[in-house]
Each structure stands twice: as C-alpha cells, then as structure tokens.
Amino acid sequence: MISDKSLSEYIKGIPKAELHVHIEGTLEPELMFEFAERNGIKIKYKSVQELREAYNFNNLQEFLDIYYAGASVLLTEQDFFDMTCSYLQKAHSQNVIHAEIFFDPQSHTSRGISFDTVIKGIHRALEDGKTKFGISSKLIPCFLRHLDSDSAMETLKTAGQYKDWITAFGLDSSEKGNPPLKFQKVFDAVREAGFLTVAHAGEEGPAEYVWEAIDVLKVSRIDHGNRSLDDASLVEYLSREKIPLTVCPLSNLKLKVVKDLKKHPLKEMMKRGVMVTINSDDPAYFGGYVGENYMALADSLDLNREEIYQLVQNSFTASFLNDDEKKIMVTKAAEFNFDFNPV
Ligand code: HPA
Ligand code: ZN
What we know:
Number of strands: 8
Shape: globular
Bound molecules: hypoxanthine, zinc ion
Number of helices: 17
CATH superfamily: Metal-dependent hydrolases
Radius of gyration: 19 Å
Distance between the termini: 20 Å
Largest sheet: 8 strands, parallel
C-alpha cells in the first residue's frame, strides 16, 4: 500500500491516457455470468468467486486459455457494446481521458461471430464514451500470432472495410515460437492500406523479437517490451528513436514475467531514457485498472510525483493522437499537476 495518501490522490486524479488494454480483458466475471445467462451459454465455473479463484497463472499461455474461454460468452453487438461501456465507465472514474483499445477479431470470427457484430458494438460504445465522459479513443484490432498469416490476411481484408474506425493493427497471443517475422507480409499490407502498426514483443519472447517488430513490422510502439533490457544496443535504440513501450506491471506480475514488482524493469528503462507508459492489459484478470497499475509500481519502485507526471506525459506523447490533440491533453495534465496542493 502507498503510505503517501497525496501520491495516491495524485495518481487517481491526474488526466491520463491508456494505450494497452484488450477490451476482452476488461470483461469482469459478474458481466461474464450475466452475458452467459442471457445468451444461454454454460460457464464451467459455478460462481463469480470460483471463476476469480481460477485466475492464477504460471505463464502467458495459461492466461490465454482462460481469456479465450471467457470471451466465448460474447455473442451479440449488445454484448460488445455493454462490455466496452463498462470499461469506459471504469476508465473515466480513474480520469483516463484517452484510450487506445485492442480487440481480437479472430477469437470471435472463429466462433461464428461476424467482424461487423464485434466492431459495431465496440465502436458504438466508444462514441457514447466520447459524448458521456469526453473520452477520446483509437481502435486497434490485433492478429492472433498462434494462428497462421493467411488467417491474419483474411482478417485484414474484412477489417480494412472499417478504415474510418481503425487506427492501427497489432499482434498478440502466444509469443514464444511465433516471431514477428511470421507476419511480415500481413504487416506490409497493413501499412500499404494506410494503418499504423504495433506488436506485443519481449513479454515472454526474447529481445530479438523486439528488434524484429521494429525492423520487419515497422511498429510505432512495442507492447510490453520487458526483455529489451537484455540488449543494451536495443535499449539505446529505443531511447534514441523514441519508440515507446506500453508496460503493464500487474500483468507482468500475474503472468510471472517478473517475480516481484520490486524487480520490475520500468524504473531502469526510464533511467536509460526509454519512453515508457503504464497500462492495464487485461484488468479484469490481473487485479487492477490503469490506476491500480500506477499505484502498485509507485509503491514497489518508490516512484515520486515527478516520475508519475513523466509517465502520464509519456502516455499522451506515445499515443496516436495528432499533435494538437496531444498538446491539449498534456496541458490538462500540466494544469492538474500545477494545481495539486495536498493538505
Ligand atoms: N500478451 C499477449 N496476448 C495477449 C495479452 C498479453 O499480455 N493479453 C491479451 N492477449
Ligand atoms: Zn497485451
């Protein structure tokens, strides 16, 4: 627990952006049971409590198995709408003013749910979030890297019809044995179609995968990137080229990417000039939304207010907003920072 009450109030209150959150990972057990009931789907756990107790993972794959099973209760546009609204409400309560949101089309189309159903539900909620809470957003479909590149290409063809609603494409799921190189052709096509690219890399996979994501997939950001510290020349490159990392501390802890948050690499990355940001990844599964992620790291790495402020500024700088939009949001954070006078 953070003993400095003012620091926790600062973290909660400061306007911030979240750049790494999988919308399917925001599906809380209560909502999962509600959707299962209204859709006539059976869940293998008897209660919310029993389901939560299953959230103990030894690695990424153990999590992914439960995460894809959880997503199988999502059938209708209304389900995707409700799930996204629920995330936005939570994000708003933590003063998130901009969110860049991942979703996994193939985990739904493989179950017979159309891409249109998925994106229409999510998009409508994002529009509502803008009106109701003033939260701006970007949408990033991710290719599942455990599937083949033909399936990714097919997904791109379908998704490409929603150009106005999509900013970038990403790469997620089982990292080991599925290097960025496997998706070279798909990402070439993504960029030719005018989209930006990001990729999960260096979460469980080696620093070499981070290099590949940069060199081959030409990503604008690396999702996670923990293992970058294994390679000094990579750290130097990330720092010099200002390639941001979207770091997810509670995810790293729950998936045993780090043994202990006190040993989390974020502070070392900051010291070495890397543009790092703090994010929640799959908050319903990892025990906290973005605010709790800031809080947990501030506590375990002894981050001070200046460091938190830097991380919040990074969250806007590293976003896919245009320069004018970034300026407005950075100013909002700066005003909060200036006005913050704890008693
Ligand atoms: N890593 C890879 N794939 C994912 C994750 C993650 O942390 N969360 C949801 N899909
Ligand atoms: Zn992720």
